[in-house]
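note to self: dont lose this again. the chain is below, predicted strucutre after it. 501 aa total, dont forget to put it in the shared folder this time
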Amino acid sequence: MLAPVHVDLNALFEPGRAEASGWRRMPAVAREAMVATSHSQATRAGLRALERGGNAVDAALAAAAMLTVCEPGDNGVGGDAFAIVWDGEQLHGINGSGRSPGRLDGREASEYGPTSVTVPGAVRLWADLAERFGTLGLDAALGAAADAAAGGVVCTPRVGDKWRGAERAPMPAPAVGETYAMPELAATLRRIASEGPAALYEGEIAAAIAAVCWLAEEDLEAHRSEWVEPLRRRYRGVDVCELPPNGQGVAALLALALYDGLDPDLHSEIEAMKLALEDARAVVHDGPLPDDLFDEERLAGRRSLVGADRTLDASFVLPRGGTTYLCAVGGNGMAISLIQSLYERFGSGVVAGGTGIVLQNRGAGFSDDAGHPNALAPAKRPYHTIIPGMLLEGDALLGPFGVMGGPMQPQGHFQVVRRLVDEGADPQAALDAPRWRVEEAGYVELEPGLAAEAGDLRARGHEIRIAASQHGFGVGQMILRLGDAWIGGSDGRGDGYAGAI
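---
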């Protein structure tokens, strides 16, 4: 038996490796259909759904279910989900976020633990998408994921590294290359496949969830997804589409609107994002946006705060969180942008006994300010981080995109769209380009690929740090129209790929 080749796994996360070739990664190109996810097994699950005759939504649901097994710290049956669907002619948005308990009895939401849990909405969203747009059925979407949870999947370097850093993981982190199984989750997935979403929102599983947190069984039974009209804002000829609140997609649209009028440089990008994040945290809640948010007079006033040689001391509190994002397109012109999450790594840290379901801690998204529109109230949805995106050109589909990662999500959307529109980058190049991230402490963190910009930014007053970890900059996916074909990319910071048929 041959001895294994020694692989320095720690080197996988070292920034700026000198031995990199200097050449770029090619985008994927396909004629009929494509799936892009952050994990290879999830992409394969989506492709198999397409090969069985399914459409883009069927592929996305199969991939989404598989990701609950392959990336268990970032998403799961106990979390929420959002999606935007292009049905070939028009957009449809669906908000799959859950609410706080209908009865609070004086209790306050916490960051973690039983009183951080909100109703998990992902399963209901899966079922609603399957019923309205799918062709194979929810049961077909869950089969491969259930088999993987029962038989085990191999831990990748990225998943293992994040798992080891999770404070509330319900089981020890597997080593890279080690197979881990989740038999209780497998049984739950099979039960949902056979009984539908009622298997989670009623009966034994609902009782198990209610037994370990502040939710009541009635809260789970009452949960419904909400079909919504996506927000749509044009940026230099491309319509960028995001879901309305309670998600933070409006922050990406605000950043683009503010930047379109400032000097085109990295300093202006960062300052526009600061203003957008500040605005979003002030107005996003479980309700409509202010009518004047995008009025040109108001935007001009906000832009006037940006100076060429000074930095804004914007005041905002950023959310945290971990997420997983995927997208799929089909030969019939259908496209879907889907994102799901437990919020922080392994969410609340609370597991519903006997089910394998890790419950999210979205209750931490409520504001501590009792007078804020995002303050906790009964049966209310909190400020939400996860945001799927879609791009249109006039009335025609360009394609789905997204960048996961808590506070990085609107920042990632802004940067990826700008690379695409302003620089003509293809999807893979736009995703692989180095990113920056505004932090609530006031500093800006740069990926190593932007280190050369640090001197100029410091001269303008920015506190700059060069990142030592890639995890804070998100993982994105994108698929766009290319004539009669598709061109797509999968973020090199993740474990996935854009696969085609």
